[in-house]
Structure to design on (112 residues):
């Protein structure tokens, strides 16, 4: 970091960056993607599509990208309970990265 870089970054920015770094350091395992809990199925004649619907057990779907292809996997209730924290961690990591990028852009824009 050059002396001019240090002039650009004030204490508030340094504090915010340190907070984000500390949060990242506390992160645990993380599973990417989206989890959907559905109570209807894809069968058009099923009672879950009736009016009123007769819903059946929730279907838990985990969707993510692998080599630019969408991959969906069904999770059991046990798997969902076991790995829910990992999905939450991935969401938190994405938010922390977005916060760090926004902070970096704020510093850059202020310098320009």
């Amino acid at each position: 970091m050059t002396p001019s870089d240090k002039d650009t970054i004030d204490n508030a920015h340094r504090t915010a960056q340190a907070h984000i770094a500390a949060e990242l350091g506390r992160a645990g395992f993380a599973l990417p993607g989206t989890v959907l809990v559905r109570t209807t199925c894809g069968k058009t004649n099923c009672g879950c599509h009736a009016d009123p619907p007769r819903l059946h057990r929730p279907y838990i779907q985990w969707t993510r990208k692998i080599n630019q292809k969408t991959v969906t996997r069904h999770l059991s209730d046990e798997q969902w309970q076991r790995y829910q924290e990992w999905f939450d961690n991935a969401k938190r990591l994405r938010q922390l990265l977005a916060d760090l990028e926004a902070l970096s852009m704020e510093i850059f824009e202020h310098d320009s």
